[in-house]
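=== RUN LOG ===
request id: a7f3
mode: sequence -> structure
chains: 1
length: 625
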Amino acid sequence: MAIDIDPKTGLKRFATRAAASGVAIEGKGYSTNIDASLKTLPPAPQGAVFDAEEQSKYREFKEARRGAADYMRMEGEFSHYLQDHYTAGPVQRESLSDECEILVVGAGFAGLLLWYKLQAAGFVDVRFCEKGGDVGGTWYWNRYPGIACDVESYSYFPLLEEMGYVPSMKFASGFEIMEYCQQMAEKFNFYDRCLFHTTVEKTEWDDSTGRWTVHTDRGDAMKARYVILANGLLTTPKLARIDGMQSFAGESFHTSRWNYHVDLKDKRVGIIGTGATAVQVVPEIAKVVKSLHVFQRTPSSVDVRDQRETTAEERDAWANEPGWARARRARFAKISAGRTAMQANDDYLAGKTKDFKQRKSFDRELTMEELVEKQLESNFRIMEQIRARVDQIVEDPKTAAALKPYYPYGCKRPTFHDEYLPTFNQPHVTLVDTAPKGVAKICEEGVVHDDVVYPLDVLIYATGFEWMATATFNQVVGRHGQSLSEKWEEGGTRTFLGLHSEGFPNLFIVSGPQGGGGSFNFTDAIDQHGDYIVWMLETLQSEQADVVDVDAEAEQRYAEHCRVADEQTRPLRDCITYYNGHGEAEAGSLAYYGGGRWHKIRERAQASLEPYRFERRASGVTASK
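=== RESULT ===
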């Protein structure tokens, strides 16, 4: 039975976890590598300075690609690219029109961690909707060969002490992370709370009842007092819009829906895209295909990975160190430089040394402009080393030249791999440089570039995801009959702390636009946001309130703070990247760049309650505190 009643709580209990599809998936992530030359960056060239000449080179690289990012959603004739290949199909169940206290959208890390925190605080009437067939979120959908997390496992995995678990590798494979999500769900009885293969299509606020009605593709119209959007930053895959895509006669799929029913062995394979996903995919599929053509518009910065197994000494030490993982994550959160965070110095993170770098001292406090300038110089030297690494590894000069990126470090998502660059030395692997505009045509036989047809049996799209643009925002309709997307399109993105948006009461957005509190580790943000949501729910109880909204002026001030923080650091993102909407996003409309200032704003709000509007429906009084 897919739905029954829990005799202990009287709440509905679900059994909608889908069965696996049966196709064999032999997953692995980063390999360990004994070749020291592949695990060390060459030194920066003597006298490397980010001078006018180098800045001009960066500008030319950027401007040549402006307007080339033409993506589309997987809708209509392209909707088959969203097919779930991982399960046998949805579990049949009745449609629901009942009510719960809290409804959460998403069953990835954020959903799992929220459930752990909510039930610990006594909130048990909680229901989850997940479009996939199992838990895992991004790790459910992304199961391509070679997938791994670029944040060190010991800081990234939530609830390690509570689970009694230690990751097997410093940088865990996505397959291990997926299995860990399943173990968390089983241990904390999450499966009973979740409706799988259930996509939320519309969420509407009813001011007369103080409830949200959540409509899904399974015919549900469930009511909830609170709705939490916990469906992630990169959840909506996208396709590059290329002429003739529909005419290709071979097999094709997107990396986020990897089709293991398609055997790549001895096939002619092409992959479009060379971002973070492709950097992990290419070395793995090159081991089995007959030929591989990698179609690149813009090269990634490919840094050293230096993967290693978790040592027996670490396991013994952590077994006798209560709170070791939380302490390690807290130290990780103090690292303010992206590359330093991703390199994840073990001595510092283990608490053996007090700092992760030697601090420089200045005779006065530097301005924000001076700090950005110094970071640009540092980033330039790192990129010089990364470009030197390409020359050191890749044998063909033309291929090496095409693989060199010219933009500030971290402007596009950094990647890490010790096998990606050597893959291009293999005779059956070819880099097709499509710069600056990308692939323009696909035909029945394969990909066409510069009037050359590259015949393919299989075409893989590694074209990424929409950044902070989940379809959910189009479908949430608030007090004024306006969707969240419509509000932001008319007046700019406006939230308070990234968690609330005025006119959308009792709605919480986890890790959405303008959401701070995190670090280079996504788990930090969802941990902070989860604690905040629990605090707000408890505050509503203590205020004897049913509804919470935010003050419009407080929201506007916060949105302006986000805009200024983005403007101040914008030179660090001076390239064409999804981080800035491919150069078209308004300042402050996407990610939060205010660093630790988010915590100060949050703490002031929590102490004073001034930004919040609490409504006590029982008495009909609206209280602003």
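=== NOTES ===
The first strand starts at residue 3 and ends at 5.
The chain has 19 helices and 26 strands.
=== END ===
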